Hints:
The complex is a heterotrimer.
Chain A: H1 2-21, E1 37-44, H2 51-67, E2 70-71, E3 74-82, H3 87-99, E4 106-107, H4 112-125, E5 129-131, E6 146-148, H5 153-167, E7 173-178, H6 182-199, E8 205-211, H7 219-228, E9 232-234, H8 239-251, E10 258-260, H9 267-273, E11 281-284, H10 295-306, H11 314-333, H12 338-346, E12 351-353, E13 356-358, E14 370-376, E15 379-386
Parallel strand pairs in A: 1-3, 1-4, 4-5, 5-6, 7-8, 7-9, 9-10, 10-11
Antiparallel strand pairs in A: 2-3, 11-14, 12-13, 14-15
Helix pairs in contact in A: 2-10, 2-11, 3-4, 5-6, 8-9, 11-12
Chain B: H1 3-34, H2 41-57, H3 63-86, H4 94-116, E1 121-122, H5 127-130, E2 132-135, E3 138-141, H6 142-164, H7 166-176, H8 178-183, H9 188-213, E4 216-217, H10 223-237, H11 241-261, H12 269-283
Antiparallel strand pairs in B: 1-4, 2-3
Helix pairs in contact in B: 1-6, 1-7, 1-9, 1-10, 1-11, 2-3, 2-9, 2-10, 3-9, 6-7, 6-9, 7-9, 10-11, 11-12
Chain C: H1 2-30, H2 33-58, H3 66-81, H4 84-90, H5 98-102, H6 107-129, H7 134-154, H8 156-159, E1 165-166, H9 174-193, H10 195-205, H11 207-212, H12 217-243, E2 245-246, H13 253-266, H14 271-287, E3 295-296, E4 301-302, H15 308-323, H16 336-362
Antiparallel strand pairs in C: 1-2, 3-4
Helix pairs in contact in C: 2-9, 2-12, 2-13, 2-14, 3-6, 3-7, 3-12, 6-12, 9-10, 10-12, 13-14
Amino acid sequence: MRKTFFTLMVILLTFSLVAVGCSKxxxxxxxxxxxxxxxxxxxxPLTGGQAAGGKMTVDGMKLANKxxxxxxxxxxxxxxxxxxxxPPEAANVVSRLIDQHKVQVIxxxxxxxxxxxxxxxxxxxxxxxxxxxxxNPTVTKDNDFxxxxxxxxxFQGTVMATYAFNDLKAKKVAIVREITSDYSVGLAxxxxxxxxxxxxxxxxxxxxxxxKKGDQDFTAQLQTIKNKKPDxxxxxxxIGESAILIKQARQLKINVPFLGGDxxxxxxxxxxxxKDVEGIAFSTHYTAEAPVTEMSPKFVDAFKAEYQGQEAxxxxxxxxxxxxxxxxxxxxxxxxxxxxxxxxxxKTKDFKGATGNITFDANGDPIKxxxxxxxxxxxxxxxxxxxxx
Amino acid sequence: xxxxxxxQHLSNxxxxxxxxxxxxxxxxxxxxxxxLINFAHGDLIMVAAYSAFYGVILFRMPWWLAFxxxxxxxxxxxxxxxxxxYKPIRSSPRISILISAIAVSFFLENLAIVVFxxxxxxxxxxxxxxxxxxxxxxxxMSLSFFIPVVxxxxxxxxxxxxxxxxTGIAMRAVARDYETSSLMxxxxxxxxxxxxxxxxxxxxxxxxMWSMKFPQIQPLMGIFPxxxxxxxxxxxxxxxxxxxxxxxxxxxxxxxxxxxxxPELTGYRxxxxxxxxxxxxxxxxxxxxxxxxxxxV
Amino acid sequence: MAxxxxxxxxxxxxxxxxxxxxxxxxxxxxxxxxxxxILNLAxxxxxxxxxxxxxxxxxxxxxxxxxxxxxxxxxxAALLSMPPAAKAMNFYMKPLIAPLTDVHLPIGLALxxxxxxxxxxxxxxxAPVLRLKGDYLAIASLGFAEIMRVLFTMAQSITNGALGxxxxxxxxxxxxxxxxxxxxxxxxxxxxxxxxGRALKAIRDDEIAAEAMGINLFxxxxxxxxxxxxxxxxxxxxxGFLVTTIDPNMFTxxxxxxxxxxxxxGGLGSLTGTVISAIIVAVMMEVLRIVDAPINLGFISLPGVxxxxxxxxxxxxxxxxxxxQHGIMGTREFNWNWIINKIKxxxxxxxxxxxxxxxVGNG
Lengths: 389, 297, 363
């Protein structure tokens, strides 16, 4: 009897708490900007499965911070936090940057799922975020506070499809995608759609095969593709897996061109792929050889100097651009305040980043040109620029 | 599918299976002695890979020097882990050692990220291993022949060790009955260390060959192979070296063949593997070899 | 005497609950959103930990499939509670299948539905899996979780696959999470202290003896497994509401390890322990961020080393498990008796001291 009464009491208590709690909590007070130092936040995966991309991006941001250390007469402190490649951590980290460090603008993140979760927190608090490399379209949809300096997958897919059709004269393609990666799945889909439209033949994509994160052996998929005899193989994926995939293809005497996306632009791709990746082409964000803006060569030289002879990669360049864009927006806004910065960002037009001219559309996505590069003699070589329509 | 292509896939499956077998044996040996699922075992692959990598790239050692050295380093690492993280809590409930193993695994992985950075590195492929050999339409890397040979040699050596030497008998005794063995004068600590050393060495050999076959290394590279080899060990019958070997080969060949015959379903590859595994476990609950677990009431 | 104690305990419990309620109320209004978010995450960990503890700690079944049930619950709650517009935005690659596009339930319905669907899958999986013992059970449960993950990744027209779901209704109120955690705690406590719970513990301690005593092993194991799955589903759903985006990669076996770690740290078979360690782990992970960032101590400046946080975390975990094998609470539960006895004994000692003093005085 006692026990039943106790349980009833507790349930009543629970309900009353819930009833009280259902009233909206107090809106958070707007964070006060720091006095002497302006803190800009950044959240990237520094550990976990996406640590490679995160590190490359952060290198670019740090370089930019070194080159442009002040804004509005105050020193800029770049606060970089790790989101462990996990969306819950991304939400935590953005919340921490906003509430503890009181930043008014945030940069990041590599990995669209991290960006989506972090972006939600930022949107609720009214802090603008500039993404470096997430290419999934939904990151900026329904979020007026999220912008990004990279082109998005619908455009990128079209770029490579057009290249395959026009330049490589391909009539049939095969696709290999990492089914656990939203980047790979998304990009492959847009490529397929664009290619089918160009050829007018619904069967021009002769095979679509998948692999999972962590897979290292692709011979079964490749054997199947070999039988279908495509002219070109599109295989967007991470550097390590893609390089090994291409090596295995060459070992199976599959000699058709491979095409990929912006993730391939990193020195490790050539190191791991070796001779086998000669001749492959991919779309990416910028090139030093045909600089789109004056910022590009500046960035490349500074990168080489800072990072001891390493070649700059696309993610570092994008990280670099998020920083300088943020600084530009703060300068134009005249004060370090979130709403003002967001309004300025929304109106960004012809901003000269290292990766090209950036003009934001209504979603916060840039209308930018893409660049196609090729591996030649063990180096990345510029092929052509593709303008957005 | 022509016979040539079938052979190609088969050879691939065999070499992958050999790798799994080598690593699974390490798992099963440790389990047999301590009843511990050493989750850090997979990360020893990573340790071996990086040791070999730095040996060749940084210290410019020839591979036949760097690789054995890497094996030694990995073995020392394995034994150290045992002394530091498992020995002190040997008498605790099993789940505690399990958590300790998970902690060690996290530690190794995150330390590697901090020290080596998360970016993948290209693993050197010595000429002798990367030659492609042609059989008509079929092309097989010389490494793919080398791996099963190494595995068989290792297995033979291990069999001899476990069945014919005193240490081996001691190992089997400890695996069968821990307490009685110590009463009979077996130095438990020495045998346990020995077992770990052997298991780690095997993981190292497997890891180096893995890195030659799939020439990229990164701090988290041991997670998936580790998991797969654990599954292989269990499916073969955990605690049994022969079981681990069979499990390893079975898993490797099946993985390749499944995708070879059903290429449209490559995305479901892992699911198939697990379904098959679970089916085996349902019909043979103690694995393919299956030790008879009579519980004393 | 016993009556008094029982009364006293009852009022103490009610008092503690009111205190907890007041604490949540204060926290909600004083703490910044960041701290609230962390505490909410702690509540989710509590729920997940309690669920896993029922299976692993109280029934002694070594299950590694928790993340799979979390995922089922998360996706169920998300698909049921997201407004149709949000769903349309997400499923831009392959459209969502028919009945799900228009479903838009309030959270109060979506949440229990998540738990029930997860529990249902728990029932389905229980039959083949629970016939296995020990480490074989571990592998089978892990296998099922991974199979689920593969299916969810491939079923683009139901789950949107790797693209994930974004725009899940966002809930930031501490009352929501902590009330659910409290209800979970109460339900689990009731289960554990009931005759079912005793049967589960009997199974844990000695299966053969339990069966000899007439306990239906299979029935109770399935009950335990499904209950655990239910709360895993609830926890997963809450994670969705907290983070507002989910994708299959969030629910790998590594996630199960996280929860396993929490319950072992707290003490397998101790509910109080799970609650405590869940909060500690959630908070510690954030506190440790200071080692990732540069530390300026005035006279020296330590550069930030990214990733150091996780290294230190795993080291701490190792240290704790080496020195506190049984976890914080072992198998003990928090009990008012402990406090009451402490107070009583202090009173007794006072009396005893008086007596002996008197004796000395008299002698």
